[in-house]
Specification:
This protein is α/β, with parallel strands linked by helices. It is 34% helix and 15% strand. It is built from 9 helices and 8 strands. Strands 1, 2, 3, 4, 5, 6, 7 and 8 form an 8-stranded mixed beta sheet that branches. A hairpin with a 2-residue loop joins strand 3 and strand 4. The longest helix has 14 residues. The two termini are 28 Å apart. The structure holds zinc ion (2 copies). The site of one zinc ion has 5 residues, from loops.
Length: 253
């Protein structure tokens, strides 16, 4: 299995990542990727980007080094009206919106019931497209069946996060959880996104371990949203109208 799009990457703007948009684009180009999404951390992660950063992501070209660049975010689940740490007015401007739990954002040691309630609320926001590393149930336990059912109902993709399988990752204990989520998604008919979660440009498009899991459990390739640029754009446009995806790519290609 080869995937030509990476919907989960971080730049220096995340506060604990070390490459620029240009470096990510060049690395993606070198690896033959067609598309990447820049998904920096929302403001409630220590050192995370301010809402204005996301508001101004229109400053980034739609194509860099021949790679389609989607302007996105990895928002944090939050106790706010829209379920996220970024306002709807800002995330509505983005090409792709991911959300996940992270340490020090108000859910450390929270109960399974509270986490599940908060994540369902975030996923019920029609602007949310992807849940990142849902299998990190060691740190943020959730009710798997409820989250997978919500993903199917809302058409939200669940991520199979490659970085969670890295022994050096703070989440390596959650590789079991990522696998369990992928199996639950398989059984329920949910879509998945396989993301690198690159915090340095050499990791962009690195999916080996997540792909091995997808192949092992025979996850159908047509339900992996990041097969290539066309499958990503189809997934996003099917969820809601995103006229900016067409306009900017046409103008800047
Ligand atoms: Zn994350
Ligand atoms: Zn991330």
């Amino acid at each position: 299995m080869r995937l030509l799009a990476d919907l989960h990457t971080h730049t220096v703007a995340s506060g604990h990542a070390f490459s620029t948009v240009t470096e990510l684009a060049n690395a993606a180009s070198g690896k033959g990727l067609e598309l990447i999404a820049i998904t920096d951390h929302g403001p409630s992660v220590p050192g995370g980007a301010h809402a204005w950063f996301f508001w101004n992501s229109k400053a980034i070209p739609a194509v860099l080094s021949g790679v389609r660049i989607l302007k996105g975010c990895e928002a944090n689940v939050a106790d706010t009206d829209n379920g996220l740490d970024l306002p709807d007015e800002v995330i509505a401007l983005l090409d792709v919106v991911a959300v996940g739990f992270h340490p020090l954002t108000g859910f450390d040691d929270a109960t399974r019931a509270r986490n599940t309630r908060a994540l369902v609320r975030a996923m019920s926001n029609p602007l949310v497209d992807i849940v990142t590393h849902p299998g990190n149930t060691e740190d943020f336990p959730v009710d798997v069946a409820t989250i997978v059912a919500t993903a199917v109902e809302r058409g939200v993709a669940l991520e199979l996060n490659n970085h969670s399988f890295d022994p050096a990752s703070s989440r390596s204990a959650s590789s079991y959880g990522e696998r369990r989520f992928a199996i639950a998604a398989l059984d329920a008919g949910a879509s998945i996104s396989i993301g690198s979660d690159a915090h340095f440009h050499d990791q962009v498009g690195t999916f080996d371990q997540a792909i091995a899991v997808a192949e092992e459990i025979r996850f159908p390739i047509e339900r992996i949203v990041n097969r290539d640029a066309a499958s990503v754009l189809e997934f996003l446009r099917d969820r809601r109208a995103r006229p900016q995806l067409d306009v900017r790519a046409r103008m800047e290609r």
